[in-house]
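Incident log entry.

Two folding requests arrived from the same account within the same minute. Monitoring flagged them as a possible duplicate submission, but the sequences differ. Recording both here for audit purposes.

Request one:
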Amino acid sequence: MVVAGNGREGLKAHEKQSFDLILMDVQMPEMDGFEATAAIRRTERSTGAHVPIIAMTAHAMKGDREQCLAAGMDDYIPKPIRPQEMYEMIARFTQSPVTRLG
């Protein structure tokens, strides 16, 4: 697991290594989740790769999920995060069971 403090750090981490899944906060300093996702998707166009990106956001208004999908994210999970929902979403995108940590 790699934790990035902002979108730029997340993008740099993605450039250095591959990931099975990215949990992308929409609101981050320096570079937000939409910008970071767009940069990742541009890179993927040249490589043919695709990493699932799940948006994480406190925005839970009508249309927010659609905005995230339109920005290139694969799914959306609103905050506050419900652990079971998160585990199920991760399992769906990684095709592997996720168990509770700790």
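Request two (distinct sequence, not a duplicate):
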Amino acid sequence: MGDQNPDTAVDDVDVATAWEGLTSKPRAQLVDVRTRAEWTYVGIPDLGPVGKRAVLVEWQTFPDQSVDLRFAERLAGELKALGVQLEDDLFFICRSGSRSMAAAMVMAEAGYRRCHNVASGFEGPLDDKRHRGTVGGWKATGLPWLQG
């Protein structure tokens, strides 16, 4: 990480590590930054088995794909309402790990000290047939999810 500020560092974690953190840490949260269309048509992580729900805040709007300039403010409001503290673990997820890393970095800059990027995302990478959801990510790993 070189000279990166350790207070704003974001690490990559796999879905199993995210699930373990969500299960074992009462105030840990999963933040799904995909679009409403993705939540509706692809599905959302189901945290019901651990007594939680995913926090759904779009990083980019659909269909124009522009970054929501109020993302940090909107997410901070959601987290505050849930009683989340700056030192609680936040696991960020998107389709395959890119948007969630950007979102996690913004929240780390905003003062949240334990931001983690779920590197393989909800659907994971493309397989050899160019389909997602079969070789990695939340769904392919068999973690609980709901169809919107």
